[in-house]
Amino acid sequence: FIISFILLFKTSSLTANLSAHEKNIIMKSIIPSKNTGHTDIRFFDDIAYDSEAERNADPCTARDCKWEQASDGLVYVPFIIANHYSDERAIIERGLQSFHSVSCIRFVPHTNQRDYIHIQCYSFVGRHLNGQTLSLNRNGCLYHNAVQHELLHALGFHHEQSRSDRDQHIRILLENVTPGFEYAFNKVNTLNQGTPYDYNSVMHYDRYAFSKNNQPTMVAVPNPNTEFGKATQMSQNDITRLNRLYKCR
């Protein structure tokens, strides 16, 4: 299955010196690219989905989103990296390998497997049949945390601020959201794998995501000074829920 990543604007050590306004400009320059050549794919910020019904459904209850576990307890996910990546290839490979030491996920080069991810920055949530495109935009989004973010989408995870319990932790300020992108703040009926809401998750957007006026689109509750959306790599909660979903030993 082909996964296309639109690896967005997640901050990293390489972008730490950018202002929130600059990050937002980068984000806006990537997102409107929409579906280049994929006329049957719809987009939910950096997530691709097949139908309107999938937008608000947790994919692990709507369909089998998980990659299969082998008899040795490992989950092998075949991948192809598009030829147009050169210097960026090392960043992508580091992101792939970062899952190996903390989970039972093993990204392996594709040979003749039917299902695989084709890294070409949008991603389907969970497993899709046959080749799934995972598109890593070369202009500003090839960072370690961004690769991990999109790989977690491909493994079945939504954005943290879309969690079913997010209203207890985040307040959405729709009055500051760029018109047409309100849907990016929809809640999803997620399972959460028994883990707490995580401001430090690599799946959490920052407070200025999709801002139309350089004002926050999200604030933490009850403490509005709580920082979020600044993860440079997967948090322990990201790792825990990954291992629980895939029943890693």
Instruction: From the alpha carbons, calculate the radius of gyration and give it in angstroms.
Output: 17 Å
**First CA to last CA: what distance?**
26 Å
Widest β-sheet, arrangement of strands: 1-8-6-4-5
What is the CATH domain class of the domain at 37-159?
Answer: Alpha Beta
Write the CATH architecture name of the domain at 37-159: 3-Layer(aba) Sandwich
Uncertain stretches: 1-45, 47-63, 121-126
CATH superfamily (homologous) name of the domain at 37-159: Collagenase (Catalytic Domain)
Please bin the fraction of helical residues.
10-25%
Task: Report what the structure shows.
Residues 1-16 form the signal peptide. Its EC number is 3.4.24.-. Keywords: Hydrolase, Metal-binding, Metalloprotease, Protease, Signal, Zinc. GO terms for molecular function: metalloendopeptidase activity; zinc ion binding. It is a single chain. The chain is an alpha/beta fold. It has a domain at 37-159: 3-Layer(aba) Sandwich (Collagenase (Catalytic Domain)), CATH 3.40.390. Helices cover 18% and strands 14% of the residues. It is built from five helices and ten strands; from the N terminus they run E-H-E-E-H-E-H-E-E-E-E-H-E-E-H. The chain has helices spanning 20-30, 59-62, 89-97, 144-155, 236-245, and strands at 2-3, 42-44, 47-49, 75-81, 105-109, 116-119, 123-124, 131-134, 170-172, 218-220. Strand 4 (75-81), helix 3 and strand 5 form a beta-alpha-beta unit. Helix 3 crosses helix 4. The two termini are 26 Å apart.
